[in-house]
Amino acid sequence: MHISIDDIEQQDKRYRTSFVNSLAGFRQAVLVGTIGANEIPNLAIFNSLIHLGANPALFGLISRPNKVPKDTLQNILETKYYTLNYISNNYYKQAHQTSARYQSNVSEFGEVGLTPIFNSPFPAPFVQEAVVKIGMKLEQTIEIELNGTILIIGSIQQVEIPQEIVSPDGFVKLTEQDILVSCGLDAYFKTEQIGRLTYAKPGVLPNEIV
Amino acid sequence: MHISIDDIEQQDKRYRTSFVNSLAGFRQAVLVGTIGANEIPNLAIFNSLIHLGANPALFGLISRPNKVPKDTLQNILETKYYTLNYISNNYYKQAHQTSARYQSNVSEFGEVGLTPIFNSPFPAPFVQEAVVKIGMKLEQTIEIELNGTILIIGSIQQVEIPQEIVSPDGFVKLTEQDILVSCGLDAYFKTEQIGRLTYAKPGVLPNEIV
Question: pTM of this prediction?
Fold first, then answer.
């Protein structure tokens, strides 16, 4: 089926949102934990974590204009700190539920049934249930003027992770802890490893790393 | 296991690259097709496609400094057009192999064994083997000064996709065509859907969409 830019522009808004969002493929959904001046822990699902670099270790998030995670962005700008908490099979409905439009004076943690924990002196709340928890510090925000979205760039400050899923070469085996991946606005998936491949060099087809 | 920012900074470079890259989670790997002034079709794997918005339909790619896909970035800047081709189970080794450091006067298509096709008048080459092919137009590049990476932003111009994987509500079922997801520098995974959830509203836990 051939779909042109005109076809996409003429799609019904809800259809187009779902089509383009899911066409963008699988992404790492994370729960972003923050706390504001009102001292209410805030939790919001973001459906794409972006790897920007390893040294310094920088991850990005995309914040949409006029969307639910506005409290999250506000809190990050105010406090400079936030947490990334990976979503497992056993609480993905609670994670999805954080995208409901709760009032600013309500904590999504309590509403959806997840537990905030503070790992002092880190100033933002983690999700106790998450098997991988990352503490982040805001480095920069970049507004993308084409559509008003904001790229939030942060540096990794600390990582809580089960030792057994970190391979001797540094590779993190997220699949072994049932960490989910998302696609589109509302779909969640588990993963199964096909293979890891050797570093590619001209003239030699890659082999599987055993 | 607790890992601090100091621990990460003291990691061996290869270990850190693998650790931080895989910690960033699962992403949509795509093959980016371009053609330069030398008329040699170029193909490079990028391991993260970023959804930036549905209206206009904008996707992002991250280009690292001093890395293999330099020809790709150069070609995109020169011609303004490029293609995104999704990677299936049956040719993921060929896809990975495009990350080898081939000379600029060599076409990765021929070297790895994938077939370039042109869909006139679209000026960039698609991968014939890809079940989902997207034609993109460059809209903007943004340099992230923190580490010299470049965010390439493009708009969708055309999509070739099997009709049977587009749901009546617009959701694209990539899993049904064995479209792979990547993690880290060298790992590839297939996906299995856990569920799609209803739009989240305060006070009502989401249900699965059947």
Answer: 0.95
